[in-house]
Amino acid sequence: MTEIERYAVPRSLEEATEILREGGVTVLAGGTDLMPQTRGGRLACQPLLMNIRRVPELKGIAEDNGMVRIGALVTITELLESSLVRERLKLLWQACDHFASDQIRNVATVGGNLCNASPAGDTLVPLLALDARAVLAAKPNGTLQLRRVPVGAFFTGPGRSVRTASELLAAVEVPLPPPGFAGEFYKHGVRPALDISAISIAAGARRDGGLLRDVRIAFGAVAPTPIRAPRTEAALEGRAAEAATIEAAARVALDEVQPISDVRASDWYRRELIHNMLRRVLSHVCKL
Amino acid sequence: MSASCEVAFTLNGVKRELTVPAGMSTLEMLRERLGLTGTKYGCGEGECGACTILLDGVTVNACLMFAVDCDGRELMTIEGVSVSETGERLRDAFVEQGAVQCGFCTPGLMVQASHVIAHHPGADEATIRRGIEGNLCRCTGYRKIIDAIAAATKPGTNRGAQGASHA
Q: Which domain holds residue A104?
């Protein structure tokens, strides 16, 4: 059993960040990753366990002026049940639809998925593609301060992010994609439920006449962190939405990713998956 | 020593208060402290669903939940579900359809199925399959479980099952 010296349940963001300032804190949100990680010895529990579930500032999904704010405590089920997410952030909605199982979706939070920083984290790939940013809260000198980090700059390695020990992830902000933006999320695993991705793809673009604009491509589980694929995006941006463009972009993607071999797939298989599945996803995005 | 914390919650309709170590899982609290052994320990990692319980009306894996996090909440285990109207229908349907072999996954599946039925009355097979994707059964191949849940989604249709099982 994990040895925890103190347990705290802050009731406000002010209180939570004050506790974090003292140091030595493990943050508990949904717990679906924290419990197996601490039990399995992959993560050492700090002396203070802080349950953030009662912090009201970390809840809710709201849109304001073209920006969707998703509180860190929003569960995957809440994202799936949000008409705003389903209609306007379809890439994220699709990833949530592929997320674990009902029991886990009911408690797992988007903030936990981000802070866990798995290269295969299901919501991370669409959030990257959607140009989302993480809102980090801290109280460095007695006053609450927020800093915003693009999700593309948030991850520093497997299980690691730029979030410091005194910071709490308060929310994710996602700008609404431009009108006409169509996207698709694809996840490859050996079974539909409860599987960790061998690879995942979030791809989207807007069609301007016959040309592709605002192209965003992100991949999961092919690098130490989820990644955007700028060279693949460049191979599509401003080009005709046709089979030859897709074929060329898929070949660029094959060179752009350098995955590792592990228990879930070999590097060769991952690159084959990226090449072939990106073609399929793009053909849907281009409505070919 | 792990810090001791007082928790108060409603369990199967009854208010409970107890002191638990901060690192204890809800599953350990239910089985070892409260003697409710209907909720099973399968994998301990949220993969098998044998420990499925209802928390504030939604299903969760009790093995992934800290017991301290139960404070102020409403829990229902298989012991509570099995005496509900839906639970009784599910039990009869599981018996009638032969959906139980070794029985280890059955409590978790019945709790999850009660949640599926509550949220999707008259659920079709695809909805049922999707609903129980977090519950593993290594005996039945799922066919009979899905048939049983489908039968239990229709109130009053498996009254004969009760008679048959008592015959």
A: 56-175
